[in-house]
Amino acid sequence: MHLVMILTALVIAWGLRSIPVSTKGDWEQRWQRSLFCFLFPPLILITTVLAIILMGAHGEMLGLQAGGFSYWLGLAFICSLGFHLGKLAYQAWLSQQKITTYPEKSIQNTKVNLIDIDLPYIAQIGFWQPKLVISQVLLNILDENQLEAVLAHEKAHLYYRDTFYFFWLGWLRTCTSWLKNTETLWEELLLLREIRADLEAAKTVDALTLAESLLTVAQTSLQPTPCFEVGFSLPLPDNRLSQRIDALINNATLPNSPNLVYWSWLLLLLTPWATVPFHC
């Protein structure tokens, strides 16, 4: 019976991930749709496996024998989750330790760490309280107004705690990379995260100046960044770059408050736990 539960969760997870990633709708609709399709499949697998481990390798459920294979399979899955989490946390810790070796500087009343690379680069790196890292090249190519706009973008990332939340999303991405559309949804969430920071920054700085800064910085191609790093200088294909600029120029707006009705789907994740009383 436990194996049936695992197979059911796998079918649900694979089915949801098989839904084509849509770019239709406004920012909020795309964000909610992509986040649901990205989060629900791995979370239903995790809650199902945890319920099976809680019930144990022995006993019966609805008259069917609970075998040890599904129990040990679930335990192996949880161990793999722990391994990936430890690996990502260690990489993030190493990055933060490296940042402490960079010289500090105050720019427009903002504390930053200067990195010595020949690329225009700026990013928040860390967890709940990330550090802002910036290259001298970026300081050289942007004027005061453009730099103010870029810093406002980075402050928006800090406001939304993007480094913290995307660390956990990146962990789920790594653990379930075998699920369909994982990378496509991940890239969509990265784009929507940057659009959110752009729109938040546009509340305090000129949107056109921010768009000009984006065009200036985006000329340089960078390697994909870790999940604990968020920044204005992330690499973007031309179509995604144009989407960020369009959102700024067309005065797109952010939702005023969280959509609690939308998040009610989280209650469905408790479904596997409802089977625990039937185990004996």
TrEMBL record:
Named cofactor requirement(s): Zn(2+)
Entry annotated with the keyword Cell inner membrane: no
GO terms assigned for molecular function: metal ion binding; metalloendopeptidase activity
Domain called Peptidase M48: residue spans: 126-181
Cofactor: record remark: Binds 1 zinc ion per subunit.
Domain of life assignment: Bacteria
CDD domains found in the cross-reference section: M56_BlaR1_MecR1_like (cd07326)
TM regions (residue ranges): 34-57, 69-90
Keyword annotations from UniProtKB, A to Z: Hydrolase, Membrane, Metal-binding, Metalloprotease, Protease, Transmembrane, Transmembrane helix, Zinc
Any GO BP: proteolysis
InterPro entries in the record: Beta-lactam_resp_regulator (IPR052173), Peptidase_M48 (IPR001915)
Family of the protein in this entry: Belongs to the peptidase M48 family.
Name the UniProt record assigns to this protein: Zn-dependent protease with chaperone function
Species annotation: Hyella patelloides LEGE 07179
